[in-house]
Predict the 3D structure of the following.
Amino acid sequence: MSHWIIAPVVLPAILAPIIAFVMRYDISLARTASFAGTIALAAICFGLTVAAAGGETVSYELGNWPAPFGIVLVLDRLSAVMLLLTSVLALVVLVHAVATGWDARGRHFHALFQFQLMGIFGAFLTGDAFNLFVFFEVLLIASYGMMIHGGGKVRLQAGLQYVVMNLAGSTLFLFALGTLYAATGTLNIADLAQRVQGLPVEDAALVRAAAMMLMIVFAIKAALFPVQFWLPATYSNAPAPVAALFAIMTKVGAYAIIRVHTVVFGPDVPVLSGVVGDWLMPVALVTVAIGAVGVLGASRLMPLLSFSVIGSMGTMMVAVAAFTPATTAAALYYMVHSTLSAAALFLLADLVLARRNGDRLRAQLPTVQNGLFAALFFAGAIGMAGMPPLSGFLGKLLILDAMQATPQMTAAFVAILLGSLLTIVGFARAGSVLFWKSTGLAPAEPAPNPDDGEPQELADAPAPAGVMSVAPTVAALALLGGLAIFAGPVSAYLGAAADQLYDSSGYISAVMGQGTEG
Amino acid sequence: MELLVASAVGVLTASGVYLILRLRAFPVILGLALLSYAVNVFLFSTGRLAINAPPVLQAYGDASYSDPLPQALVLTAIVISFGMTAVLVMFALGAYLEAEDDSINMTETDETETTGKEGEA
Amino acid sequence: MMKRVFPHPLLSLALLLVWLGLVNKVTPGNVVLGAILGIAVPFVTGPYWPGRPMIGRPLRVVEYIFVVLWDIVVANFQVAAIILFKPEKNIRSAWVTVPIELTSPEAITVLAGTITMTPGTVSTMLSADSSAILVHCLHADDPEAVRDQIKRRYEWRLKEIFQ
Amino acid sequence: MITYALYFAFGCFGLGLLFNLWRIATGPENADRILALDTMVINIIALLILYGIWQGTTVYYEASMLVAMVGFVSTVAYCRFVLRGDIIE
Amino acid sequence: MELATDILISFFLVLAGIFGLVGSFGLVKLKDTMQRLHAPTKATTLGVGGVLIASMLYFLLVKGSLSFHELLITLFLFLTAPISAHFIAKTFVQARIKESDLPPTGREYGWSIHDDPPLVDDDRKPDE
Amino acid sequence: MTNGGSLLPIIALLPFLGALVPGLMIRAGRNACATFTAVPTIAALAMLGVLTPDVMAGEVLKAEIEWLPQLGLSASFFLDGLGLLFAFMILGVGLLITLYARFYLSGDDPMGQFYTYLLLFQGAMLGIVISDNILLLLIFWELTSLSSFLLIGYWKHLPEGRQGARMALAVTGSGGLAMIAGMLILGNIVGSYNLTDILAAGDVIRASDWYLPALILILLGAFTKSAQFPFHFWLPHAMAAPTPVSAYLHSATMVKAGVFLMARMWPALAGTDAWFYIVSITGLITMVLGALIALFKDDLKALLAFSTVSHLGLLTMLLGFGTEKAAIAAVFHIINHLTFKAALFMTAGIVDHETHTRDIKRLGGLAKFMPITALIGTVAALSMAGIPLFNGFLSKELMLEEAAHTAWYQNDWIVPALATLGALLSVAYSLRFIFHVFAGPARDDYPAHPHDPPFGMYAAPALLCVLVVAIGVLPGLAYPMVKVAAQAVTGQELNFYLKIWHGVTPALIMSIIAVVGGALLLGLHRPLARAWNAAPRPEAKAIFDALISALVRLSRGVTDGLHNGAISRYLAIFVVSTVGLVYVAFSGGTLSPPTREMLPVPPVVAVGYVLLIASALLVVLNHHNRFRALVLIGVIGLMISAGFVYLSAPDLALTQISVETVTIMLLLLALHFLPKTTPRESSVGLRLRDGVIAVAAGAGVAALAMVFLLRDFDPISDYHLANSYEGGGGTNVVNVILVDFRGYDTFGEIIVLGIAGLTIFALMEALLSGPAARRLRNTDYSRDRSRDRHPLMMVVATRAMLPIAVMVGVYIFLRGHNQPGGGFVAGLVISIALLMQYMASGFGWTQTRQRLEYHTMIGWGVLIAALTGVGAWLGGAPFLTSIYGYIKLPLIEKFGLGSAFAFDLGVFLTVLGAVMLMLYSLSRIARYAGETVNVEPMDYDPSGKRELKKPEGE
Ligand code: NA
Ligand code: NA
């Protein structure tokens, strides 16, 4: 059996402590190691994606214990895609963090970064429900550290709320897992699927409760209504590269919903009728609305971006909630897109805000490279709002097209399209104030709002962003372009991934097939 | 016994929930601690209850054992929640020291400090 | 050299015994392991115990233990009687200052501990220069007598043990 | 006979726990509460050992030993907090 | 013989129970915090001590295995209980008892919670 | 695919590639930039020229490149008559605009940007007209919105520019989104997004239930883009753009996209009553209204803008009629409107450029100063007015003829009457353009002295005027183009003539009425304008702005109201929705009857239960006194540990009690700096609400637990019990699960701890370098403290306790695999022992004697655990596969040793390191707050055996 499947977890797990404890006084050494590791991870994840393309679901039995008694890792197309997406995003974010010097503004950035990756990879790979909890916690606690990297009052307050919300979520996760184990006697996802499918109807209540709790847990991570409240403050106050990396964190929640609620609590499992299917769709629709309204109503840049993330999660989850292979495939494409576009915008916001006073949406004297930033913002906004020529438009078309075969078509159309409109208007207002209106201010003019207490001019004129600082933003945007151009093959892969998901027998036999001797 | 365990979980949960809805960081921490007790006992009890049957294998006789798996899970959960609580406490302390206010709710909607003014490295 | 390897030889021996007590089984393997640990653990914890207490007369130690144990038993009954049967208003508590001549921290600690462990008296604190113990008596008609008994029964013996 | 003696001892220490609870609930001093908790720890140790005798197993002894150790440490910590504020200086 | 064993073990159990209960009862009955501090010593000494002895005897005489664990627990308790009491007492004294209400130390320095310790390089202690 | 078709993707791509040119060329100078910008356009035109004969011969050229087959999206292009006509218009006018803009833009304007935007826009427009896939068309459609946003907002320092751009984007963007829905529905009806397929499936479409929604949605897109009533208001505000933009977007191209789309979709969508009434009514209203407003606009460009609205209405109306003749008229008018309107815009631009004003009231008599411009303007305006011998006349006649034969709801006269009115108004404003700008007496108060511009600037409008006259005189010139385009629109073979004289037709009479009436109206302009300006009328921009800002305010209100930073409320919502949803889910299923008996409850256990419950409630009641609450938490932990012992979980008991202690230590360390009490802030109502929520949650959880506690199940753990000893080499099954069966969980768990340590350390460092550090320094935490920091007794007891505790730790570690214990508990025990040491002798003294570094310990722990797992690879086994064996040494009984042991060692080190690093971090903060470093292990050593060694480091 190939051990490569565990490499995305083990490599950062080994690298991180070395960075943290051996290289902690030498930032350049830490940077080198972090880069080397992240590049290697990207290569490994790419290899795994290629390996998974064939359609075979691979199970890796940790400790050589047969499923369902030990923990298994499962690699299928979906998990491979998630790995690849994460590693690419990580690389982009890492370059930014290093080029802008963010990584040196606090301790242990690179170690936490690697641990963060480890947690995310672990969550995508695991085939065990409780192990999913463990890796959720790994990625969460690393994200706590990343979130408050650099410190600061508001960031700490927001970080505190972030931790509290997630601890509440983790508690619910455990309640859910407990109920699940109490009802089925197992933790392995494939085994759960089998047992849930064979569950007598008169014993459904517990499993139904567990399925609902799990959905809420994942909904917190995915920032779905009504548990999305944590996201704006968190993303707005996280260091921008971290916020960019967090773009994948909401997807972990979405991934978990996709995984668990197709393989285990699939829509065709009779005892679960009405548990998730009936709720996820309205929830996703409201999430779209909250995101869009938030974008339009935002008076600051970071919340605007944060709400756009919520909106994009809603859009994606609308497709997920329809639970058909076609909508899921569309959702996956949109997910890849929204991850990268959110990252691009947060990275760009970092470049811009480093040269402005605060992120309030109001005109200030034009900063250096105003034109460049305006262009990048325009591109990023196009990406996020789902306008052509970037991949968001195709993603949206895919979702809407796939939704036509579902009963919720009208609602989905209205929500997604109206949401897009508000998002477009919101971004247009923001961009025009940030980058255009500023050009109307004469440099000699005094502050237009002298009594709001904030100095209009920075003490030192900020330096222009170097090539390496801008490169990650550009790269993320370029990836959106690439995703659009190669939409065909990408979509084919994701479509195959979705088909694989809905044919859970492949997953189950891959995991359980080898473990019959127990 | 089952009733006692279930109701204890319930009371711990209720107390924890009440406390996490308070307005200061410290009671919220206490509430989360209570919730963590509650969920640990809950998780533990999913293996059903047994008296004097610790899952430590005995060489002779066919003893009965309580379900070891939930116990292992609870151990993991305890450790994790310990780490989380520690971080939480530190965050609360940090937030208090920075803001001189231990309200858990963010009162000011300050400008984001996301980006320092340090410029480029 | 010896001091580095065996910072506390007595301690090492005690730890070997502790180990055998813990594993609850005396086998060659356990003895070897206990011995190794008995040497290794003080080596690790040694820095926290910079001075070595001198135990002068081991027999006195045994004697002291039995004296204290006896006192504990007796005092337990006395105090139980006070708690159970003495009306609240008749309980006359008192503070007693016990000046001490002992200078070894270990000796002072054992003395204070002994005072506390014998029911009826609690050593509350030392003076700032550790030259007196403040003792609280649950019920003492004659505080002077309590002080004298402490000095006579315990301090004197301890002085001999920790020369 | 041992069984009845055990019942008796269980009863005594159990009742003792309730007394401790009373003191912890009513105080009034911090010292009273710490004291009650400390006593509670001792009663629990006794109960654990009694339970070991009752079940004829030594598997629970480590628990008692650990309770003894951590009970002490937390009592000191509580006291140091009241006395000095900072428990580790 | 068996009866003697039973009686012996039961005796210690009953003794332990009584003193354990008295210790905790004292917590409720005694009116003054300082007085209450005396109570747990009984639970510690004869209370737990009795249980431990009973346990050792039980395993030795009934189960036929010698157990040292009880001794270790005893050792622990005897080492720690005075320190606990010491701290709790100080906690109370510091909070509720005025310095003037305590008897004087009769020495150069006051009680430790009120007075700073002598300086390390204090000339008054010329024993280097 | 014919040979020619393969050029189509290249033609479509050229402008986009060309958009890179200006950026590269701008450094070479403005002339070079403009010249090279023209190259791709010329190249595309040339290729188009190559394809023209085929298209004129009736061939439809096609090219298809697969793109996203899952969606039915392909990069498919086709070129038929309609596409060819529009492509020529787009490229041809684009070329003229490129030339014109070179002279129009000032030296301050970033010309490179302008040309880039222009080419992007050109490419998008071109894409629309040659797309053979409606999704591809949608892409180009949205691209026109985006690129026009950039063009309109080109003068970004002007608020009108920004606002106009945003308005255009909002209006056309929303239409575009509606169109997306419509197109998707359309594709769904047909089963293909291929335009050719859709156009061939008109009957299917019109018969579908989804026809009307699709039609309305698509028309929304077309109407917004083509500024049809009531979406007409954005167009005038887009005039804030530089005039070349207006000339290009708002005469020739973008606004025609809507018209194009209606023409394109004609075979698929037209021919129903719905189409007829919606489209023609909208068009007619727009035509009349636009013309009316145009008449009273004093801004030259606004006048032209509303005239454009009016003419777009005319075109829409024609397409709405749905007849072949109307289609011919529409196509012809598209060409004509392009020629005269582009020329007029450019003329307006020249006037603005030379006189520095566009206000008609400040103009007049310009013919004297700028005769060439005046000539061009007059010719174009006469064409717009529909005067014979100019091309506008011809198509207007066709329009009037069609109108004369059209009835609405059996009413014969309303359409002709309104059409005539529109034409009349059109004559009026056209004549006003001539008479109020160029004719009349010369003035001496122009803001700048006017004169004709250089040739380069008037060349483009002049060329267009030549076309105006040429077609006007010889309509046959346009015939082939009109024919082939109209055939493409209708999908029919058409035979017709374009001529100047049709005899005395109703149209001619209507025309005469229009011209005469228009002239009269102009004569009455002054009083009419006064009345117009006095009359109340809705100001579209104000309404739009108010609408948007109300929407923004509402959004802000909703957002800030929901996300108000009150996590207490977030959590309340979370708990309430969880309880509610889980209840719904649970009660949607059923339960089999209980299968388990309840276990009896001995009295002592009941006492423990009472203590637990009472303490939990007391925590709630006493939580305002934080210290008291912590003591009570201690009781709860103790009771739960005891409960674990009773319920056969000794490992849990050990872990719980030790974790509990460390946690309380951490809380106490933190509480030192926090307020010691919690103020009573929540109202009674709020507390009641929270109480209800809490009780609901508690009851729910309890019920859930009760349900499963009374029912049997079939757990996988039988396997663990059965295989623990044989396969895992241990008798403590819980430990074997932890280090072997589920060692991977444990691996994750120690990493959580390690990260916790790191995070806390990092945060501590951040705090001590920020404002918190100052605050710490300036706060006196030492009031009312006991004066003994390190009491002698404690120190001595610790000296004896520490080695024993370490022994216990080692013991618990070593036995863990077979008896309760293990690396985790051992790590905690040692931590607690060290903690005791820290408490006794203080942080500073102890730390300097610390031989192990906590950072390193965590690192080693994680590494050992990971490497133990990786070691299995050497044997070809998966990660974390354990090996186990027995070792026999002389004199010593054999003992077992396994890799799980090494793994547990990793756990042990990580736990120890993490806990100590956490405490270290908190102590650092305390030290920063003014605690002094103690040099001695105890406050005072009466024996004089003091250590005089100064601690190293800090
Ligand atoms: Na005493
Ligand atoms: Na005493």
